[in-house]
Amino acid sequence: MSVVLPFRALRxxxxxxDLSRTLVPPYDVIAPAxxxxxxxxxxxxxxxxxxxxxxxxxxxxxxxxxxANLDAWQRSGVLIRxxxxxxxxxxxxxxxxxxxxxxxxGFFGLLRLEDYERRVVRPHERTLxxxxxxxxxxxxxxxxxxxxxxxxxxxxxxxxPPLLAPDFDAxxxxxxxxxxxxxxxxxxxxxxxxxxxxxxxxxxxxxxxxDGHHRYETALAYRxxxxxxxxxxxxxxxxxxxxxxxxxxxxxxxxxxxxxRLIRKGSAPSDAAWSERxxxxxxxGVPVPSAADVPALLAAHLAGLRDQHAFAADDASxxxxxxxxxxxxxxxxxxxxxxxxxxxxxFGLDEEAVRDGAIDYPKDALATARDLRAGRGSVALYLxxxxxxxxxxxxxxxxxxxxxxxxFQPKLPTxxxxxxxxxxx
Length: 425
What we know:
alpha+beta, Conserved hypothetical protein from pyrococcus furiosus pfu- 392566-001, domain 2, six-stranded antiparallel beta sheet, 21 strands, globular
């Protein structure tokens, strides 16, 4: 059973700050070279609650400045804490890679932390020790959730949107536009009947972590340390919960986008090599006048093959190869089949070669096509995205997805809501 509760958010007072100037991407997607610009953008930019100004400072910092900023900004009124617990609905309006405007709706709440073994909260990727140690330093110092974990739930019948919509219609609590040109509209859901309906619905949902695996596992480590210090486990203690954002994986605005492969080491196979090494796969050739034509060609020729194992190979020769074959009865993920049969079978790249940088993992097909033609690789392999069913099926079986399988758009920025750990709610 998932326990998702309303809470009293700490948030920016929009009479004192411009939310568009204080929102910041998740800490792990901010390039080192971009930190300075965010620090200088606004004296209250949310990067000041999650990162040092210089990457070189991370090893020695204890992140004491984060709690100092939180306290100072509350004293000055830049940050205010709401008087009553609520869920915080979020509507994100953005432009998808196909150029169409999309809307994703979800909400923030407090999630009771659960060990993975209970299968209530399910990871889809493995984590690294270094980032978790860094985030634990931050959590110990801040005693607050300054950024949120992002989780997916299954709502094929669209049960929750009618519960969230009235709060948007009544007028937004806050609105801001981030660096990716995504508009974020926040509304407070505090009607007792609808709060109970959301809580009851979520109680039946297993949850899959979309983004924030390191933050979630850091929160588990912090919880365990607090339990050990107290000598017991209080189910209502603040450290038993963390700030979380929840979105329906099956909603039209929840985009699971592919991560492509750019072969950097090794030459492009000949026609004979493709045919010999990919037995059982069908091939169709499509002319490619330029890199700019690649996204449209993928939409026209690859997107319709999502019910099969399929990929497109581009060697900048002016011809796009579309390969496909029926899915295996056991339902193997296409990305696994491609790594075994194409990356290993065709290119001869084993796991050690991949770890040594034989492959890049770009997210944008157009940028990949341009990089290829600029000589930064020999062959681009364009993939279709995973389906939500794939994510839930694999994680329900206790497995994780292969490395670099998918990414979720849009990202969830830091700065919409925060949560102090002094009180559970």
